[in-house]
Design a protein that fits this description.
181 residues, six-stranded mixed beta sheet, 32% strand
Length: 181
């Protein structure tokens, strides 16, 4: 699976913070699509979490984002890539929900919280699918399991183009990709 590396060049205008990812874990660089059943609605506001909604006289500071993104698979229309990891616990098994400062330092969000999704820009990724055929000017495709990869032929098939490779894959597996979603 492709993992996003620290080198990134993008405008904050191309980052969308209106959606959450429901999985218990996801790696930055995951290609995501809009959840058709839980897309953003104009009349939607932040709602308190289910604890506040189900118990009388209970107040919760935690708000959840109602709109969602899901992992993109081959044939889906990609929306962007995750800029942050999604995780419930840190490396010591402690819940990140109770330590938001550490979550921010780790560039991680908790499931149900808004995750930044990049739609356009230049990023360095590692571990793309089929690296031997990736070349400068070649197409980067959204493949199964939210992966970015190259294809032996530039025919579309059921994959959707997410950008262009700006060079060949380095010996360590890094490649520069220009996202165009």
């Amino acid at each position: 699976m492709a993992k996003l590396r620290p080198f990134r060049d993008y405008s904050e205008h191309d980052v969308n913070n209106l959606f959450a990812y429901d999985g218990s874990s996801a790696t930055r660089g995951l290609v995501v699509k809009l959840d058709s059943a839980k897309g953003w609605k104009a009349d939607q506001v932040l709602a308190a979490d289910s604890i506040s909604n189900s118990l009388a006289n209970a107040v919760s500071d935690r708000h959840v984002v109602q709109s969602r993104v899901d992992m993109c698979t081959s044939g889906d229309t990609p929306f962007g890539i995750l800029l942050y990891d999604v995780a419930e616990t840190d490396e010591n098994g402690e819940k990140l929900l109770f330590n938001p400062r550490k979550a921010a330092e780790m560039q991680t969000v908790v499931s149900g919280q808004a995750v930044p999704v990049l739609t356009k820009g230049t990023v360095l990724v590692n571990g793309i699918h089929n690296p031997s055929v990736a070349a400068a000017g070649g197409s980067a495709w959204a493949l199964d399991n939210g992966d970015i990869g190259a294809r032996a032929s530039n025919t579309q098939g059921d994959a959707v183009k997410v950008g262009t490779f700006l060079g060949p894959v380095a010996a360590n597996g890094d490649v520069l990709v220009k996202l165009e979603l």
